[in-house]
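Annex B. Sample input.
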Amino acid sequence: MGKQESMTLDLETIKQSPKADRVPLRRLIARFHSLSRRRRLAITSTAAAAAVVAAIAAIGSTSGGPAKAPVAPQAPAFTLSVLGHSGEHISLAGFAGRPLIINFFASWCQPCQKETPLLARFYRAAHGSVTLIGIDANDKASAALKFTHAAGVSYPVGLDPYPMHTTISYGVDALPQTFFLNARHRIVKRVAGAVTEQELKTGVAEITKQATQG
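Annex B, continued. Sample output.
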């Protein structure tokens, strides 16, 4: 079964991607819903804001007059501890003005076991021309470190343990998922399931083109 490329930004489409290419977070989401209402609202506030932006753009394009291209949602900000470097942090703000690929994964995710080595090779082959970061979701740091070392990962990885504030703020309901951000850190492409080399090349071409066009 081939994996369907997802370029939409709505969660329903993400849920329709082949399950063989992604590991659902149903159990984790159930735990999330067991939290107090105040904590759930705090965690999801950023994701809700992104959804509102997308909804407003969609309404504007269908309310009469010339159709307008939908506005890509702003990527939620985050600051996470760096895997393998105690006391260090990685943040979205630290890559201001640069196109960026963000990959959500975990050592326990079966599709990630094939995808992560591909990402590592792609990053090495780019020789610094591509900015890529990984976000390890709901994982043990020791397991994640062993996994990324075995996969040959040399790009930075941030840790997002339960309750996965960053993962949830991006609307990720299954792993792996990959986001392509332009220089203004708007999400222009999103891939649910294991990303392919061709999808990586296409995504990089898109965010690089937008960067050169300003």
